[in-house]
Every structure is written in structure tokens, then in C-alpha cells.
Amino acid sequence: MEKADIKSLPFEQVKGLLTEMGEKPFRAAQLYDWMHVKLADSFEEMTNLSAELRKSLQERASLTVLRTVRVQTSAIDGTKKFLFALPDGNLVESVWMRYKHGNSVCISSQVGCRMGCRFCASTLDGLERGLTAAEMLDQIYRIQKLTGERVSNVVVMGSGEPMDNYDNLLTFLRMLTDEHGLHISQRNVTVSTCGIVPRMYELAGEKLQITLALSLHATTDEKRRSLMPIANKYGLAELMEACRYYAEKTGRRLTFEYSLVGGVNDTAQDAQELIGLAGPLGSHVNLIPVNPIKERRFVQSNRQAIEAFKNKLEKNGINVTIRREMGRDIDGACGQLRRRHMEEQRG
Ligand code: SAH
């Protein structure tokens, strides 16, 4: 019999499993609390469960715990980057950032990625597989244990396309914000997508109060296609329609992410067109100076161009932030730490 991936099961399903094992429902609450609040690393630790129950859990279920392979701490701002090994040996990275309003963790949703965005390091070797709910949760649990500090914000903006791992993503989001678990406020959770239109409609119907961030990066179909292959499948018109639907249905404003690439998408005209897209939706724009990766020739826009771009948006009433380049001394860009580690291992 295959073991149940018990840490990926929502509370009701853990209850079901324990009932099947002849246990009382309150045992499920205790077990769930050990896994998702006390963040236990093994069944043995769960001392208020009988030795017999712990033994049968051992036999019937596996408890996903990631192994910490590497931690890098930025000397500039204290940002920490973690490299974790999944139970099957695959590696993923996560980032911990300290902000005035609390600690934020950026997690990966897949090993690798198949979206092929031209400037992104995560996608260079394609997709290995999607992460289970437990593997997404445990990135946060490990970090909370390692730093000894509470995590209050979670962004699904690491490696992978979360909408390409939709079912596990949904289970993860529900468990992360469930009152039986870490109970992080849905409003403090952001999911970033390259724009898989049917999944955006589906997500809009899930009754979640999370923030959806759309990786826009260009304001014309032609330019977007040159940066993001997904734009060949979904054009800007239907993408914007999906955004409108999402905002209307959930009452939540979207964020547009816009990575500024020198000489590619950072002109006054680009800014003007971006105003035309973000304005009517009331979207917040998050500008990301592109983080150059050695496999590609993209360069950052210069400071002046970034400031001019931002000012133009602001003058037109757009709410805009420039993503602080946190941890830029520690392989900040998505997928860079994992790649470097794997290259070093290969020698
Ligand atoms: N698959 C999701 C999450 C990707 S990572 C998505 O596409 O939204 C989060 C953001 O960082 C995305 O907007 C992504 O396009 C951007 N990004 C990836 N690599 C980058 C780089 N080297 N420089 C700047 N932004 C990058």
C-alpha cells in the first residue's frame, strides 16, 4: 500500500483517515496541530499521541520534511535565501525577507518550469515536476523554525508557474490560511502567474481573498511574445479581460509585475501603454529591474530610465512600487542559487 502524504491532506481528510484507523476525531486535531502549528519533524515527537498510534502512522503515512542544503544571508539587508532538498532529492529555493510590516517568504511551486520566459533562470532546464502541498508548506515551516520568527506574508513567486500546478496550489493556499494551521491571512498571500487565462477564471471562483499578481512585462502582444512564450497562447486582450473578471468577481485589485529590461520595455511609450492597461483596472504596478542571468544577454534599465518610468506612471495616478533589490548579493533571481549549486556539484 502506498503511504498517504499526510501533510498534504486538509484537516477534514486527516480526520477521515484517522477515523478509518479507528481513532477519535480529537486525535485528528492533535495530529494536525503537530504537523501545521507545532511544526513537528517526525511522528515520534508527537508525544500526546499513543505510541501505538504513532507506530501505525509511521506505517501508513509519510511526513514530508525538507532538508536544508544551503542558507545564504545578505550582508546588505539580512535577506536569506534557502536551498531545500525535497524527499526525492530535487532542489528548490525559497527567500525570507524582513519588512517593516513583518516577515515575508517567497516560495517555489515547481521544480523548474516549462513557461520559458526569456529572462528567467528557473526555466532554463524545463519542468521537472510540480510540488505537493506539503512541499510548499514546508518551505515556510522550515524557514519559521530556522529563523525562529513568525512568517506573516507569503508570496508564491519563486521558481515555477503556480497555475501549472493548480490543484496542489489550491490545497496549499487553503491549508496555509486555515484556522487549524499557521492561519496566515489570505490578504497576506500573493500568487504570481505568467497569465494562464483559464486558470485565472477558475481561481476567481475559489472565493479566496488572496492577491493575484500578473507578470505582464510588456504592453503589446508582439513585445510580450518576444519575452514570454505564453503570450503566443493568450493575447493581451483576453488576458486583460481575465484580469477584469478576476477583480470584479473577487473585489481584489491585481498587481501587475513589470520587469524593466534595458532598451526593451522601458521607454516613455511603454510607460504610456502600461498606464492604459493598469489605469482602468486600478492595478498596482510593481517594477522589477531585471536581474541579469549569465545565460542571457538582458541588461537592467539604468537608474534614470527606471525613475522616469515610475514617475510617469505616478503622474497618471498609478500606484507603483519598485521592487527593492533585496539580497542582490546572494543570487537573488529566481532559480539562480539552485543552478549554481547544481553546477558546482557537477564540477
Ligand atoms: N511563474 C510565476 C512566478 C515567477 S517569479 C510568474 O510568471 O509570475 C516572479 C516574477 O519574477 C515574475 O514576474 C517573473 O517574470 C519575474 N522574473 C523572473 N526572472 C526574473 C529576472 N531575472 N529579472 C527580473 N524579473 C524576473
Describe the structure in your own words.
- The chain is α/β, with parallel strands linked by helices and 347 residues long.
- The chain has 11 helices and 14 strands.
- Strands 3-4-5-6-9-10-11-12-13-14 form a 10-stranded mixed β-sheet, covered by helices on one side. It has a two-stranded parallel ribbon with strand order 1-2.
- Helix 6 packs parallel to helix 8 and helix 9 packs parallel to helix 10.
- It is globular.
- The protein starts with a strand and ends with a helix.
- The model has no long low-confidence stretch (mean pLDDT 94).
- The structure holds S-adenosyl-L-homocysteine.
- The site of S-adenosyl-L-homocysteine has 18 residues, from strand 10 and strand 12.
- S-adenosyl-L-homocysteine (SAH) binds next to strand 10 and strand 12.
The proportion of strand residues reads: 15-25%
The DSSP helix count reads 11
Mean pLDDT equals 94
Q: Give the overall form.
A: globular
Assembly context of the chains:
single chain
How many β strands by DSSP?
Answer: 14
Short description:
This protein is α/β, with parallel strands linked by helices and 347 residues long.
Itemize the secondary structure elements and their pairings.
Elements: E1 4-5, H1 11-20, H2 25-36, H3 51-60, E2 61-62, E3 67-73, E4 80-85, E5 91-99, E6 102-106, E7 110-112, E8 127-130, H4 133-147, E9 153-156, H5 166-177, E10 189-193, H6 197-204, E11 211-215, H7 221-227, H8 236-250, E12 255-260, H9 268-281, E13 284-289, H10 303-315, E14 320-322, H11 336-346
Parallel strand pairs: 1-2, 6-9, 9-10, 10-11, 11-12, 12-13, 13-14
Antiparallel strand pairs: 3-4, 4-5, 5-6, 7-8
Bound molecules: S-adenosyl-L-homocysteine (SAH).
S-adenosyl-L-homocysteine (SAH) is lined by residues 115, 117, 119-120, 157, 161, 192-194, 215, 257, 259, 288, 290-291, 293, 333-334.
